[in-house]
Amino acid sequence: MSSGYLTISRPGPLSTLQDAGRYGVRRLGVTQGGPADLHAWAWANWLLGNPWGSTALEITLGGLELKAGRDCRLALAGPDMQATLDGRPLAPWQAFTLKAGQVLSLGMCRQGMRAYLAVAGGFVAEPVLGSRACVVRDGLGGHQGDGSTLAAGDRLAFVPNETAIPARRLPDDALPDYEETPRLALIPGAQFRFFDDASLLNAFGRPWRVDNRSDRMGIRLQGPALHCSIASMISEGINLGAVQVPPDGQPIVLLNDRQTIGGYPRLGTLTPLACSRLAQCRPGQQIWLYSTATDAAQREYRQFRARFE
Q1: Which candidate, 38, 4, 6, 3, places its Cα nearest to that of 19?
Q2: Rounded to whole angstroms, how far apart are CA atoms 151 and 65?
Q3: What does pTM read for this prediction?
Q4: In this predicted model, which residue has the larger pLDDT, 3 or 306?
């Protein structure tokens, strides 16, 4: 079956292809990439019956416009970006048909940061180190394999999936409220006990605000300065959600495009779903942290994954 294409007429500030991420290569200094909001990305694929790991388009802030080269089934998940189909309003969190020649247009998001556009069967691109995930700073993955973001005139390829699946509607408990102040689960880390009592009380007893110096690599938090008795460390591996505390005492939550090693003490690690929710927080938005146990975090993640298998 011949491929179909979506032609980009307006790319928006930052639009990239993301599959589940690039794993098994951190020893080479290569980070994972993948969707900043795993939750919305997963549900976008679920709406079309795509298997876990299918490649979808991550759209930051909005501003995307594209035209279908042939009929296709698409799904849009994430915050409201004032989407229209040939000028008619289109709500998020649903699958829909885009016919050849029709135009899908996204304005700027009203809340949240990132939306996900999936196509039945997933977008097609050449894997790099086993993944299509786009990591701009590493020059890896994406629609051209070189880490480039979408540009006007680019075409996104897909293999039309003719298999019809029953119409799907998201469960009510899967729909997030991006305007609600989130409470984010943190698993205490190896250096947790070296933070003084006042810092720990402040970490979990006072709100934090998202700094405007934030991107897919990491999100800075503004709040009370945290103090750790460890003056220096040997650099160690950095996992998704690691909360590093540099000398200024303001935490940095490391996300999908993070460096692979770091030498600042860590308060702990946000759970994968906490990272997803944080990735939708806008600069200035308030968040709270709370401590959770490893087994509780694993149980939450297994229950989440079980909904897609």
Answers
A1: 38
A2: 11
A3: 0.96
A4: 306
